[in-house]
Write a structure and sequence with these properties.
The complex is a heterodimer of chains A (468) and B (781).
Chain A lengths: L23 E6 L6 E7 L10 E4 L10 E3 L1 E8 L8 H13 L4 E4 L6 E5 H5 L5 H15 L5 E7 L2 H24 L7 E5 L11 E3 L12 H10 L5 E5 L3 E3 L4 E2 H10 L25 E6 L4 E6 L12 H8 L8 E4 L19 E3 L2 H7 L20 H11 L4 H13 L16 E5 L8 E5 L2 E8 L11
Parallel strand pairs in A: 1-4, 2-5, 3-8, 15-17
Antiparallel strand pairs in A: 1-7, 5-8, 6-7, 9-10, 9-11, 12-13, 14-15, 14-16, 18-19
Chain B lengths: L2 E11 L4 E12 L20 H10 E5 L5 E2 L7 E2 L12 H35 L16 H7 L6 H20 L9 H29 L11 E4 L9 E6 L3 H13 L6 E6 L1 H9 L4 E4 L4 H7 L4 E4 L8 H7 L4 E3 L16 H10 L4 E3 L3 H20 L7 H8 L7 H5 L6 H9 L4 H8 L6 H5 L6 H7 L2 H6 L2 E4 L7 H13 L5 E4 L10 H12 L3 E5 H8 L9 H4 L9 E5 L4 H15 L8 H11 L2 E5 L5 H12 L4 E3 L8 E5 L8 E4 L5 E3 L6 E5 L3 H11 L7 H19 L21 H10 L10 E2 L12
Parallel strand pairs in B: 7-8, 7-10, 8-9, 10-11, 11-12, 14-15, 14-17, 15-16, 17-18, 18-22
Antiparallel strand pairs in B: 1-2, 3-19, 4-5, 6-13, 19-22, 20-21, 20-23
Classes of the chains: A alpha+beta (468), B alpha/beta (781).
Amino acid sequence: MSFDDLPIEIGVIYEGERVRGKDMFVELGGPKMDKKFELAIARDMNEIEDEKITIIGPDLKDMEEGSYHPFAIVVEVAGKDVEPDLEGVIERRIHEYVNFVEGMMHLNQRYDIWIRLSKKSFEEGFNTLEYLGKVLVRLFKTEMNIIEKIQVTFVTDEAEVAARYDDAINRYNERDARARGLTDAEVDTFYGCSLCQSFAPTHVCTITPQRYANCGAISWFDGRAAARVDPKGPLYAIPKGDTIDDYRGEYTGVNQIYTEKSLGKVNEVSLYSAFDKPHTSCGCFEAIAFVIPEVDGLGVVHRDFKGETVNGLPFSSMADSTAGGRQVPGFHGISIEYMRSPKFLQVDGGWNRIVWLPDSIKERILEFIPEELRDKIPTENDVMTIPDLKAFLKSKSHPVVERWVEIEEEEDMSVPVSTDADGAVAVPGEFTAMVGGVGGGLEIVFKNARIYAEKVIIRRKGTGDKKK
Amino acid sequence: MKKKAYIKADEAETSMGVFKGLEVRIGQIIDDEWDEPMGPTPMPGPTTLRSWDHKLLTKYTASYMPYCQVCCLCTMGKCDLSGDKRGACGLDMRGQQGRIVLAAANIGCSAHLAHSRHLIDYLIEEYGPRTRLIQGPGTEIHAPVSRLVTGMRPRTLEDASIILDYCETQLAHTLSATSTGQEGSWMDFESKVFHVGMIDQLSMEIADLAQVSTLGMPQADPDAPLVESGIGMIDTNKAVILTIGHNIIPAASITDYVTEKGLYDQVEVGGMCCTAWDMTRRDQKAKVIGPISWQLRYVRSGQADVVVVDEQCVRTDIVSEAKKVSTPVISTSDKAVMGLPDRSDDPVDSIIEELVSGKIPGAYISDHHKVGIIATRVALAVKPARRRKRFFPSAKKIQQLAQDCKKCMECVRACPNDQNVQEAVLAAQTGNMELLREVYNNCIGCVRCESACPNDYALHSWMAAVSQDSFKNETHVVRTGRGAVQDTEIRRVGQPIVFGEIPGIVAHVGCANYPGGGKDVHDMAEEFAKRRFIIVTSGCAAISAGHVKDENGQSIYERRSGEFDAGCVVNMGSCVANSHIAGAAIKIAAIFAKRNLRGNYAEIADYIHNRVGAVGISWGAMSQKAVAIAAGFWRLGVPVIVGPHGSKYRRMFLGRADRDRDWIVYDARTGERMYTAPGPEHLFYAAETVAEANVLTAKLCIRPNDTAKGRSIKLSHYVDLHERYMGFFPEDVWKYIRRNNDIPITLKDKILAQMKENKWKERPIPDPTMLKEQIFTGGEK
C-alpha cells in the first residue's frame, strides 16, 4: 500500500494537527451545520462494489474558500468476520484515519463530526474527496484484515444529508440499545487486555459486555474486534469456561487467564466486587471506588477530580494504594462506563453502597443512578468530612445506614482494652511506647538509647489492686 | 535519617517513675511512619550503584575526544598522554579524560549543591527548621528524587538539611577521586560521574522544593503565570535594576522592597538567567530580560541603573563592564564577590551614597536584607542623569572607527561561532551596518573578538548599537516556572504513553551557548510539540524557547498548554527545577507499576531506561553544571543530546547498533535473554545540526517495552523526520520491527521490502530488564 499517488502526505504524524479558522479552506460538518454524520454499516459481500467511492453533492474543488458544508461519510464493509456488532469499532477508525491526512482535522464522532481541510493541502492538490476515499479504503483494508470489501460514500448535498440523517440516528440508537442490552450471561467469550502489563506486570483487564476496561477506552466490542484483527496482540479472547458464581462474576476461564498472565500472582477474581477477590487495578483506571469504613460505604473519585475527597485524601493518594496490578480490597480501579452497568459492584450492594462521588461524575451518569438514590448520594458540594457525611446519609436515609446497626452492635460487644498503664513491662535493650489511644497510632522505638539520669528515685505510691 | 534528639526535663513523671534532671540524647530518629519498605540502596556511596553504572557503560561505551593531549595537574608532569602513553602517575588517556569529566561534574554539582545549602541555611534561619516542605497539590509523591536516592521523605527544612549533609559527603568522595594517585580506571571515573550527577539532581530537588515551599512560587501549577520577557519589555522611563545569576534570595529582597514601598510605577526589576525565572515565579511584576548570553549587550546598553549579581553564570568581568557605563554593581554571594569592597556591615545610607556618587564601583553586601533597599534607592537616584547619556557609539562613529581595521582576521578566528566579524567591520566602513546586525543575531556575547582585536574595537557594542531596533522588538510573553508535575497529570498521560499516543517526553534544558538567539531551541520544541510529544523546558533554554513569536505574535507558551500532556510546552523553572523532569520520569514508575521508590535506585533506573521514552536536549550546554545535570539523567538511563559545542565535553556515550549482544535484555516474566532493537541507541550524543538532533530525538524515544502502537508511532516520526531532514528513507527501520503490527500503517510497502531484504524474523516483545534480580522467578530459570 502506498499513497504516492496522492498530492499530500498521509501518516500517523499528522494525527495531532489542528487546522485553525484562518488556515482553513473548507469546513465540513461542524457546529455551523445542523445535520452531519459518519456511519459504518456491515453489509453482505454481494451488496458492495469493492473500493467504489461515491460523492453526492459538490466536491472540494467546487467549494468556495472559507465555506461551510453539510457532510456525511458512509463506510460500507463486508467480510466473513464482519458483523453488525463491529460497526461501532469500524466507525471510530474513521476519526483516526481522516486525521492521518496532512492538513485535515477530524473532531468528534457520529452525528457530531467536524472536519476542516487546510488551504495549504487544497493548494497542494487535495481538491477532491476521491482522495479521502482512497485513504479510507486503503487504510481500512490494510489495518483491519477482516474487511474484505469496502465502499465509501461522501455526501455534501444538503437535501441528501438530511434524507439519510434519520436512518443514521436510528442505527446509532439501535446499536446503543444492543450494546447496553447485551449481558455477560449472554456471551461465551470475554476479552482480556494486557496492554498495561508493560507498566503494571500482574494486571489483566477482563472486559465483558457489562464491565468496561478500567481505562474507559475499550469496550467488549472493541476487544472483540481487536482480538480478531490481531490475534497475537495484547487483546485476546477469554473463553468464559464454567460459571462458578454468576452473581459474583466468577468464571473458570477468567481465573485461568489470571493465573497464566499474572504468573500465578492472581488466581481468583470476582468481577463485580470491590472487596472480595476484586479485579486487579492497573495504573490508568478512570476512577477509584474507595471504602469509607466509618460509614461502611464506598466513595468514588475520578482522575480529573482535583483536591481532596470526603475522607481527606485526594485521588492521587488513593490511586497510590490502588494501582500496580494488585487486588486491593476496598480500593478498586474502575471505568466510568462501568458505573452505567447493572452489574456495577453488585456483590457489594451496587449503588446502594455508594455514599459519595464528585459532582461532575454524578451529572454525567445521573440517569444510571437508581432514581430513589439520586439525592441520597452527596457530592463535594454537600459534604466534605466524615461526620458531615454520616449526618447527611442518616438524614436522607441512604440504604447504607441500615448496615450501621449491625456494626454499632458489634462495636458494643467489644470490651475496651484496659487502659491501666502500670501494666507496661520494660524490656531491656528496647523500649516501646504506644502514643495515643487509637489502634495504628504512632509507635516510637528507642534503639540503643542511653538515658543518663543523675538520680532515679523509686517511691511506692500507696497500695491497691494495681498488681496483676 | 540522622535526625538527632535531645530531651531535657527538670522533672518527668511517668508510669515507670519520676525522673529528675532527666536528659535524653538520641543519635537517630527513624521515620517509620512511612510504610513503604526500605529499598536496597538508601543514601548510596560512590560504589553502591557501580554495577548498574557498569551495565550502562558497557552498553554505551565512552568515546573520548580528548581536548588536549597532556596532563599538567601535578609537578611530575606535564605528561604526554597521546597514543598509548601513560603519565607519571600511571594514568592513560582514557582515564585522564574520565578524570577531567569527573572534575567538571564535581564542579557543576558543587555549584548547585552550594546554592542549595545556602538556600536551606538561609530559610532555616528565616522560617525555622520545622518549616514544612510542600511541593503543591496533587503531589502525593513529593520529592521523588529524594525518596529514590536517600530513602527519606523530606518533610521539613531540617530534613532537607540532612539530605544535603549526605550530598556534601558524596561530593567530597567523588571529588577526591580526581586527586593524583586515586582512581585509575576510566569506567570507574565515569561511574563516579554518574554518582555525582545523581547527587546533583538530589541537591537541585532540595533547592527547588525549599524555595517553592517558602517563597510563594507556583506549586506544581499548570497555570503558572505568564510574565513579560525581553529587552523591549523593560520600561526605561523607570529606574532599572538588573539581576543576574541563579539565587533568588537577593533578588527577592529587591522585589519585596519595591512591592512593600509601592514603587513598581518607578522601578523595573528584570532578571537574566535563572534568577529571572525564580524572581518571576514569585513576583509577576518582575520581568525576564534574557538568557545568560544577553548580559553584555544589556549592560553595555546602559539601560540598567544598578546590576545585582548573585551566583553562577555571572560574567566575571561584570564590574569592569558595568564601570564602562557607570553602572554600580552589587555582588551578594560569597561565591562571586568580584573584587568589590565588603560593605555588608556598613550603614545603608553610607553605602547608597558612595554607590550613587561613584566613589566605589560597587559593593559586596552579604546581608540579603539590605540588598533590596540599597539597589532600589541607588537605581532611583542615578536614573535621571543616566537617561540623558548615550552609551552605544553612533553609526557614524562606528563607520569612522572601522576605517582603521587591520584586516588581521583575529576577530574571526576568535569567534566560537565562526561569525565573519571582519567582513562586517569592513562593510561598516562604507556605512553598511547590515552585516554587523547579522553577526549580532548569531552572537553569544563572549566578546572574544574584542580581546583579539589589535585595535581594541568594542565590536560587541558596535553590533548591539546598530541592532537597537531588534532590542525594541524583544517583547515576549512567557510562562514562568511551574515546579513539579502533579501525580494526577502523570496518571492522565500514563495510558497514552503506554498506548503510544504520546511518543515521548523531550526536555530542553541548560545554557544558551547557541547562535541565532536560540531560535533553534524554539523550533525544535515546536517541531515535537506539534507531533504531540510532551515538551518541558527549564533555565536559559526555557527563555530562548519563549523568545520567538508566531504569526499571531504569540510565544510558544501562549499558544501551548502548561499542563503536562501531549503537545504541551511546559516551563518547569530555573535550572534547579530540572530535578522535576527527572522526578516526573521517576513518578511514572511509582504510579503505574507501583514500584517502590524508597532507596531503590537501580530498579527504577532500569524501569525508566527500558520503558519511559524521555530524551534530554541541552542545545547550548556550556557549563560544568550542564555536565552534572546530564550525568544525573544518564544514571537514570535517559539519553541526552547536546548541541555542536557539546563535543567539547570530551566524550560521547555511543551505543553500537551493529553489535547485537549489546541489546540483549532479560524478559522479566521468563528470565529468558532476548534481543531487542538498539533503543535508545545512544546515551550521550553531540549533534552537529538541528536536523541531526531532530532525527535523533525521535529515534532516542524508542524503548524495548514499546507497545505495537507506540512503536509504530515512534517509527513514523523517526522516518518522517529522517526523510524531511536527511532527504532519504532511513535504512535501519526494519531492526525496530518486532511483529508486523509494529509497522507504521502508511509506510508498510517500504518497510516490508526492507525487512525482506534483511531477512527479518518475528520476535516477541519482552518485559525488559537489565537486572537479573528483576526476573519474576528470581533469575533462577
